[in-house]
């Protein structure tokens, strides 16, 4: 099975957002990764619902939305309305994670749970069947272009073991510092999906770069 590639629109040219979204439409990317940052949970602010709605208007592929915000429960319905098909919340921001996941499911979206680099994967054992996607952060969230944290490879292998032991169908996605070298290590460890931002949009031929990531 080929690797799912979810290019991060945060690295696109915002002055030519429609052009870049249409480029991704024509590529082999399966999803479009949308990073939402609030300046509270992470020390940065990205775009919000109006820009996401504009992206959705032009996108022909599912929006893979990653909420790096302090109070994700307050906005679940709004992100559904803005076009999210996968909604990923951070374990670190959800006091009642099971309840949050049930709310996401009730809105008809797939559920995702992201783990910061310091958060152990074992914490997801008891609810792995409620999670469609585990997002392993291989950098500290909040900024693009960071250096890959090697321990992410071991975390992918560890969560893969938990998924297999439980007989769950949860996918593993990795975000941060992904390129052809780190991507190969992650896929070999069990990753199903790779998020790539600056590596895709900073390349001479983003469509070709996406194709290379798919066959890792």
Give the integer mean of the pLDDT values: 96
Major sheet summary line:
8 strands, parallel
* CATH class bucket: Alpha Beta
Oligomer: single chain
The general outline is globular
Describe this entry's structure for a reader.
The protein has 216 residues and is α/β, with parallel strands linked by helices. It has one domain: Aldolase class I (TIM Barrel, Alpha-Beta Barrel), CATH 3.20.20.70. It contains 8 helices and 8 strands. It has helices spanning 17-26, 49-58, 76-81, 97-106, 151-166, 180-189, 198-201, 206-214; strands at 4-7, 32-37, 63-68, 84-90, 110-115, 133-137, 171-175, 193-196. An 8-stranded parallel sheet has the order 1-8-7-6-5-4-3-2. β6, α5 (151-166) and β7 (171-175) form a beta-alpha-beta unit. The chain is globular, with a radius of gyration of 16 Å. The chain starts with a strand and ends with a helix. A divalent metal cation binds at residues 33, 35, 66, 175. One of its GO terms (molecular function) is D-ribulose-phosphate 3-epimerase activity. Keywords: Carbohydrate metabolism, Cobalt, Isomerase, Manganese, Metal-binding, Zinc. This is Ribulose-phosphate 3-epimerase. InterPro entries: Aldolase_TIM, Ribul_P_3_epim, Ribul_P_3_epim-like, RibuloseP-bd_barrel.
């Amino acid at each position: 099975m080929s690797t799912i590639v979810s290019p991060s629109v945060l690295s696109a040219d915002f002055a030519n957002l429609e052009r870049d979204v249409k480029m991704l439409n024509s590529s082999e990317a399966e999803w479009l990764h949308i990073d939402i940052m609030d300046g509270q949970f992470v020390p940065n602010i990205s775009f919000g619902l109006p820009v996401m709605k504009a992206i959705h208007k032009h996108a022909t592929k599912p929006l893979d939305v990653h909420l790096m915000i302090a109070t994700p429960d307050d906005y679940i319905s709004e992100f559904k309305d803005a076009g999210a098909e996968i909604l990923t919340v951070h374990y670190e921001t959800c006091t009642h994670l099971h309840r949050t996941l049930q709310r996401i499911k009730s809105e008809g979206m797939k559920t995702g749970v992201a783990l910061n680099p310091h958060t152990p994967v074992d914490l997801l054992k008891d609810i792995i069947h409620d999670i469609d996607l585990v997002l392993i952060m291989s950098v500290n969230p909040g900024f693009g272009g960071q250096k890959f944290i090697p321990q992410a490879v071991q975390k992918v292998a560890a969560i893969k073991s938990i998924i297999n032991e439980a007989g769950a169908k949860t996918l593993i996605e990795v975000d941060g510092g992904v390129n052809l070298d780190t991507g190969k290590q992650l896929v070999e460890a069990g990753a199903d999906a790779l998020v790539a931002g600056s590596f895709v949009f900073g390349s001479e031929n983003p469509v070709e770069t996406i194709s290379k990531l798919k066959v890792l």
